[in-house]
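debug: dumping io for the single-chain case to check the tokenizer round-trip. Nothing else runs in this session.
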Amino acid sequence: MDCKKVAPLFGKDKKEPRYYKNIRMKTDTCLHEQLVEYINTISQNKKLKILDWGCGEGALSQRLVDLGHEIIAVDMDANNFKANCQFVQIDFNNKNEVENFLEKKHDFDVVLGIEVIEHVKSPYEYLEYIKQLCNDKTIAIVSTPNIASWWGRFWFLLAGELWGFSYESWDDPGHINPINEIEMKRILKEKNFNLIDIFEGGILPIIWFYNLKRLLISLFMLPFRLIMKGKKDGWVLIYVFKKG
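debug: decoded output
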């Protein structure tokens, strides 16, 4: 699969579980590959010290270790972690645990928050934690579901709710806080971050051969693309920023 194309004209991605070295990638198709490519442009062939702030099983952490970077991976479930790097167990909703980690001196080149912010009770607090983890040169990369994707817009029209944020989604996959682009930009500005880049991630085909129903929906939505504003492609939005 060509992971460089966020919105291929045709695609039949079934959104099936994907693995890196037997570690489950709990993200949208190709997101990790796209992030690694972006980090490669940042690193300029240098070894980076990277914090994976919400690492899940550690698939992205392991990719970055394999590229020669120094990784500290953080998440709440130590039993689920499978990557070969340093791991710190922290519940992001437990203020004491987070603050104990923040009190230690860190010097990260990159801080990653990949598909985490929508799981925490306070996105403002989460970004404040990231700010405290950054020095003036640290690059922060945070991703969250693109609720304004063309599929998300259709789903809201049909169901009156945001895709991926239903009543049941609070339990599985644990999505509790949808964040749109305007809100994210305003929070970053309020926290005195300098926004460097925003780009779409994951693979969301324009004409989606997932099944007959989704094929017909994508064909129905096709003419509306001509008048859609904003970032309509990609399952996620990726924000890159630094302290101001």
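debug: round-trip ok. Residues 10-243 form a domain with the Rossmann fold fold (CATH 3.40.50.150).
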